[in-house]
Design goal:
Number of helices: 9
Shape: globular
Order of helices and strands: EHHHEEEEEEEEEEHHEHHHEEEHE
Helix content: 25-40%
Radius of gyration: 25 Å
Length: 384
């Protein structure tokens, strides 16, 4: 199963319509949370409580004069909003997260619609038909005919996207150009170093985008940004600043994601057996000197992309025990010695082997004993 996320090409009227539906979904989700707190003491199942809440909204709340505006919007929006709250509640009861919070407008706009009549046929081209919403233009055309039933529309900065899943399987390649085990060492100064000497560096565009964002925030440090608790409204220039800041954040996130996607795809296509270290990301973030660089690099996303692409490209991805001393071990004679972070060259005290620190660690990861290795598994199963 694949998911496609494409940018919509909307006019002002369509943007307003999307924003109204996103507000409708947010209103229904928050209403479901409020009503659920009122029926928590009723001794019936969770599914029954959600059904009663939905029935109350359909048969009573929607018919009130002050809520007549809900009848002008798609009914599939509130159906999926209640379903989303039910799923969030289920994750909470299984211990996978906290109790669902209220959705806020500043956190972003998104909503989901589906077809009650089964999958919708989507023709190849630059137009897409979304159930109960109509036909919209796309900035990037769909390259082939396909079918889908559920569509999620979301906004990032000033851009609207539609995402949907396609039931299809990709045949993995029969062979890779490199069949030997390859080790990958992730670092701050050099993003990724492979045991065969290949090096990947973060693009300069990410650093430039961060500098641009910092300058924008510094120039607008004295603007009246508003305070909702104190009843102070944001000025017009402050609202422009918020929009520009959101665009800059989106550019940084998209640039990082593009780099990670291309890098992991290239590695997955070339190497059949991949080993990476099971890094303690939360522990690295506790170091204020490394936290910014670790977040910018996206180490966890790199591992996640490699893992979910393993069945697509027929690769084997393994995680090395995080306590294995890959950086302190000599790749030539296996001698273990202290290795401070500021030292960029590994000079063995036993055999005199002189090697780049990251390359030495990558070679050790490739040859680590099997009892210190485990298979990498995706975050979610296909059922979830």
């Amino acid at each position: 199963m694949y998911a496609l996320k494409l940018e919509l090409k909307l006019n002002n009227s369509e943007r307003t319509r999307m924003a109204r539906h996103a507000g409708y979904a947010r209103f229904c989700y928050n209403l479901a949370r409020t009503l659920y707190l009122g029926v928590m003491d009723i001794k019936v199942s969770r599914t029954r409580k959600i059904a009663l809440i939905k029935k109350t909204f359909t048969n009573f709340i929607k018919k009130q004069p002050e809520y007549q505006w809900t009848n002008t919007l798609s009914s599939r929006v509130y159906q999926n909003a209640f379903r989303a709250f039910n799923n969030a509640l289920e994750r909470f009861l299984k211990g996978r997260g906290g109790f669902p919070n209220f959705k806020r407008k500043k956190s972003g706009d998104s909503f989901t619609v589906d077809s009650s009549n089964g999958p919708v046929f989507l023709r190849a081209g630059n137009r897409i038909k979304i159930p109960t919403m109509g036909t919209f233009r796309l900035k990037e055309a769909i390259g082939y005919n396909c079918c889908s039933q559920t569509f999620t529309i979301s906004r990032t900065a000033d851009k609207w996207y539609v995402s949907f899943t396609i039931k299809a399987d990709k045949i993995p390649p029969l062979y890779h150009s490199v069949s030997e085990t390859i080790g990958i060492d992730l670092g701050v100064s050099t993003f990724a170093t492979l045991s065969d000497g290949t090096v990947y560096q973060l693009p300069n565009s990410l650093k430039k985008a961060k500098i641009k964002l910092g300058k924008l925030q510094y120039r607008n440090r004295n603007k009246q940004l508003g305070n909702r608790k104190l009843g102070i409204k944001a000025s017009t220039n402050a609202q422009k600043f918020y929009r520009n800041q959101a665009k800059q954040h989106a550019d940084i996130a998209q640039g990082r994601r593009d780099f990670l996607q291309k890098t992991t795809t290239e590695i997955s296509q070339k190497y059949a057996h991949i080993r990476i270290e099971d890094l303690n990301i939360s522990g690295m973030l506790a170091n204020h000197k490394l936290a910014s660089s670790v977040v910018d690099s996206g180490f966890y996303e790199f591992r996640r992309f490699l893992t979910y692409k393993s069945p697509i490209y027929g690769t084997v991805v393994e995680l090395v025990d995080r306590w294995y001393p890959s950086s302190k071990t000599c790749s030539s004679c296996s001698h273990v010695q202290p290795m401070p972070l500021q030292a960029r060259m590994f000079v063995c005290e036993s055999c005199g082997n002189n090697c780049n620190r990251d390359l030495n660690a990558a070679i050790n990861l490739a040859s680590v004993p099997k009892d210190r290795v485990r298979m990498a598994s995706p975050e979610l199963t296909p059922v979830e």
